[in-house]
Amino acid sequence: MKELKIPAIIDNLDTMIDFIIDTTAELSLENRVISKLRLMSEEALVNIINYGYPDKTGDILIRCEMTEKRKLFVQIIDWGIEFNPLDKDDPDITLPMEERGIGGLGIFMVKTIMDTVEYNYSEGKNILTMTKIL
Known about the structure:
alpha+beta, five-stranded antiparallel β-sheet, 28% strand
């Protein structure tokens, strides 16, 4: 399993996203699939960067692996404020934009793109685990 531990700052976002996408390099994925994985990565990581460490700086640990069955495993770990993004109700995307509540669309996209999304808080760590069969 590949790992990247990096400061949770916006300047490192492209490095983090590329690390996740590079895990799939051997599969020669279509651009639309890569774009979806890039979007999923950005949504998950930007929330941690923007809200996980409001009063201090911290790190993000990303673990990635491709299994033999073309399954992408991504785990994002931070030591910031405890926050379960899966607790938020999915937005009602049938409503006009001006009638929707603020927030929740990003994690909704993550859940739509990935096959599984799980959250756990353990020993001071937020652990977001996602898989996608490619």
